[in-house]
Specification:
About 15% of the residues lie in helices and about 40% in strands. By secondary structure, it is an alpha+beta fold. It has one domain: Roll (Pnp Oxidase, Chain A), CATH 2.30.110. The strands form two sheets. A seven-stranded antiparallel sheet has the order 2-1-5-8-9-4-3. A two-stranded antiparallel ribbon has the order 6-7. The longest helix is centred in the middle third of the chain and has 9 residues, at about 75-80.
């Protein structure tokens, strides 16, 4: 184990589902690399794997939606994290979703979500950071619960091939 592994192994970030829509396509994936990156102006960055179909759709999208899930929504996380649209899977077929600001696709059962306008794309290796300017937010009514974290999702195999 390297020093970097010692550091990153202690992290337990919130997991997000990021959705994108462009050119008549919808895509979404489970993301573990995401963070607020500016206070003024408020900005958020999500990092999408270049191996992921969502990355390809997001590359043509003006807006992305970012959703927090609860631990009780592990099945929803597994759908977006362990399945791939490249195999013809329509991840949105059995979930409640709505089109929101800028054509963004919002999962209606997410306890918290926001739509962000893409203001910058940063190539950082095998992931690209999409810096978002939040333009709309909301969340599902009902009980919340603890957020889904990395440790809760370790059993979800990635839906895209490893490079």
């Amino acid at each position: 184990m390297t020093g970097q592994d010692t550091f990153t192994g202690r992290l337990n970030p919130d997991m997000c589902v990021v959705t994108a829509a462009a050119g008549g396509e919808r895509a979404g994936c489970l993301v573990g690399f995401a963070s607020q990156c500016s206070i003024r102006p408020p900005r958020f960055v999500v990092w999408l794997s270049k191996a992921n179909r969502t990355f390809r759709v997001a590359g043509h999208a003006d807006h992305l939606a970012v959703h927090l899930l609860t631990r009780r929504q592990h099945a929803l996380a597994a759908l977006f994290g362990g399945r791939t649209g490249d195999d013809g899977v329509d991840k949105f077929a059995d979930v409640r979703w709505a089109e929101r600001h800028g054509g963004a696709v919002v999962l209606q059962d997410a306890p918290a979500w926001f739509v962000g306008r893409v203001v910058l794309r940063l190539d950082a290796g095998d992931h690209v950071g999409f810096v978002l300017d939040p333009v709309e937010s909301g969340g599902a009514d009902g009980p919340g619960g603890p957020s889904l974290r990395l440790q809760d999702a370790l059993d979800i195999p990635p839906g895209h091939p490893a490079d």
